[in-house]
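Batch 3, record 17
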Amino acid sequence: MNDTRLTNEFVTCLENLESSDNIRRRHGVAILERLGGAKAARIARTLLNDQDKIISQTASRICAKHHEPSIAASSPPPVPSNINKHILRYPREVLDETVFIMRRNLTGIYANAALTAIPKLVLSFLIFHYFAQIFPTNQQTFSAVMLSFIFIHQLLWRPLIFMSVGRAVLAGFPERKIRQLAKSANNWEDYTNISGRNILTALPFCGLGLIMNTDPVALLVAVAAFGVLWEVCIAILPMSLLMPNTSISSALHLRFSSFVSSSAIFLFHLFLLYLMVISSSMLSMDALGVDLSAHRSVGGISTALISVVIIADCLIDPFIIAWRIVTTRLALRRGRLL
Amino acid sequence: MPEQMVINTPENHHIQLPLAGMFTRSAAFLYDCAIQLFAAGALYFFVIISIDGLGRVAGGYLLRDFLLGSLKIVLFTWIWAYHLYFEVYHGGRTPGKKAYGIRVVSRTGQAPGFFPSLLRNFLRIADFLPFLFCAGVISTLITDRHQRLGDLFAGTLVIKENIQV
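Prediction for the assembled complex:
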């Protein structure tokens, strides 16, 4: 076979391989096998993990024939990364990054979230199905039970959720140093540490529950005040996972010196996510024939809606935790602290 | 760091395409929606004001009904062909996607063809279900290449361009 003919055959082969038509690609790889040689083996190496089984098997045969067992037996070479540093300039990019990190350990995050959300799920189930039996007449009893639940959940259960789901989030980080942090087991010492820091936001949140039925203006002011407090304390719990020995004042200082993300934009997206989950659930139940009008209402709000809001909270809470950890991690990196 | 799709070429080159995140995609979609609504609203009011006096002249009713019918067809076409036109003839970039630095590509990294683009945009209806793109969000969250249902069926994906290194 002369050189010109060989070159022409290679060109035809490459054209066929680049095609989106599978039959042409199979034809291309068949030519490649016939041509043989080191050059063919190099090309075949890129096809080892091809989605088409025939192509990948032929490629592996070509590599094996040309005495490149290491190539034939292994997966394609590691991709050299030319995107080493991706600069996050906008809050939406931080949100995207949060989703990418969550995707790397989605099963772990939602397994932990499901375990720690059991009290909420049980409450939601009881409200949805047995509200009339549990609270036959007195709405105040319902309010008291809900308040007690909020107190216990926020003060005692929330640190456990943050610790468990937070570590699962850390396992999805691209950096080895952070993934190592995820490997440490949940223990009593960590729990008490996080619980102590959690009080700063948990108590005001419980206070919001207390004044829920009072003057709407006072409630609005209290919600705004809580929003500001939440914003200020945003890095405290994530810091206890990322750098367990740092003080609360360091976390507060970090919040004001190095944060790139915006809570306002985050809250806007959060609102949309809640709206999406709640409205989709209600519409789906309606479409499936669940009679939502049969449910009683508490203070003008359907109990079905209350239970759906609790479920939506269970689904979206891991995202909130992940976002707080990612923003804190970014701030630590900007401040060159971790 | 964003996730990437890697294309291995027969020449042993690796082309890395960073995938666009769902929040950037939704921001670009809202941008496009704003353009579509603004243009559609402007056209609607222009036509309504223009045909206002037609009912008072002989044969005017017929012309007015004809213009109103045409307006509906034009608006329908505008809403549905907007994404298709820009994706096919502007390298997978609608004005919204261009503003946010993302584009639609096929699985081979090229601009999408007419039918894949038609399919991905038609299936936006499925992505919207049950409400507010819930199906699309779930699909984007769990698929390997961050694809919504329309992308899965059309064999397309949305990538980020102008990554700062």
